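<context>
A single protein, sequence plus fold
<entry> Chain with its tokenised backbone below
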Amino acid sequence: MAFVKISEQPSLYDNLESKSVHEILTEINAEDHKVADAVGRALPQVERLVTQIVPRMKRGGRIFYIGAGTSGRLGVLDASEVPPTFGMPPTWVVGIIAGGDKALRNPVEHAEDDTQQGWRDLQEHGINEKDTVIGIAASGTTPYVIGALTKAREMGCLTAAITSNPDAPVSQAAEVPIEMVVGPEYVTGSSRMKSGTGQKMICNMITTTVMIQLGRVKGNKMVNMQLTNAKLVDRGTRMIIEELGLPYDEARRLLLLHGSVNEVLNHSR
């Protein structure tokens, strides 16, 4: 039986060009409501992945997202948010996109069609068996991603795939397939829409849960966030006030002295 891409099936809506702005927005919103439910159905697979990532990272392992186009950009986005949010080095969660950084803004012709390049890109980071490689491919057929996952799995890495199509080739290449089936896109085949939204939700879940499990959050607060602007300095200062009952100026002084809320709290014990 031929593999059928649900994500490429015709939209449930037609004659889009004849619709009003209100109709288009309402219909897109109706489709977007389906995404959270699709992610919810994939939670057992996400849990299976996270529970295997945490002990690996405690032994020095890293997370690598790898993808092409929208999928690659979303992996890079999630990886780039980990250092400022959780105060982790940028080498702990890495996003790799077919075609390199140029592809973040502009499409790179045929970059996703090379079955060998994904593994070469991973090797530039000295990948090893403690690491986790998460391939992201809405279609489930991207050669760049499948090739990288296949080789990474052979080398002993933990591998996972995030896709919008059940029983996809990328799922077969990974140890933990996460199949988030959101159905046809509003604009037929435009996986930047529901598929992209669901991918971002799952990536957020993975890294946030892993970082909480690694002790990078206290209570519900980002106590290890990087102090990169005035808003975050103020947020951190108020966290210290809440925890230690200090005056604002003293809390701010200690925050800037020690560099993070967590370090201030550790020194106060």
The CA atoms of residues 240 and 246 lie 7 Å apart. The mean pLDDT is 96. The longest helix spans residues 21-41.
